[in-house]
């Protein structure tokens, strides 16, 4: 989408590409404990939300909404969390995470609660296909 855009190695290592949205590359974190998406605006050298121009800020917010709604429809979570931290991975990226009252970290944040639980290959493929189907026809 944008010349010179590259995913940070941390995101490449931990995420699986789902699809490109209008602005962002959408990743599924390879952690089966939570339905966990990451949106990465395809703009080089951006580390904070305010680094984006106003139209791109709008687009990211729209994509967050679309992904949040998709997770809600697919998984019926108790809560959908949205976060853009970037303390460890400096490339601008936004986490959209379906949370459940019985998940391993509830009600606290998910970071640092347990080791990642990678998806089994067939589960990963099914999850990515389900997300692509759901996001191909957003409401």
How would you portray this structure in words?
- 32% of the residues lie in helices and 21% in strands.
- With 139 residues, it is α+β, with helices and mostly antiparallel strands.
- The chain has a single domain (9-127), classed as HIT-like (HIT family, subunit A, 2-Layer Sandwich), CATH 3.30.428.
- It has a five-stranded antiparallel sheet.
- Helix 2 (54-75) crosses helix 3.
- The longest helix is centred in the middle third of the chain and has 22 residues, at 54-75.
The total of helices stands at: 3
Question: Biggest sheet: strands, sense, closure?
Answer: 5 strands, antiparallel
How much helix is in the residues? 25-40%
Order of helices and strands: HEEEHEEH
The appropriate CATH architecture is: 2-Layer Sandwich
Structural class: alpha+beta
Radius of gyration: 14 Å
Task: Write out the strand line-up for the largest beta sheet, numbering strands in chain order.
Answer: 1-2-3-5-4
According to DSSP, the number of beta strands is 5
CATH superfamily: HIT-like
CATH C-level category: Alpha Beta
Distance between the termini: 24 Å
What is the beta-strand fraction?
15-25%
Mean pLDDT: 94
CATH-defined topology: HIT family, subunit A
* Tertiary shape: globular
Summarize the structure.
By secondary structure, this protein is α+β, with helices and mostly antiparallel strands.
What key attributes describe this structure?
HIT family, subunit A, 3 helices, HIT-like_sf, HIT-like
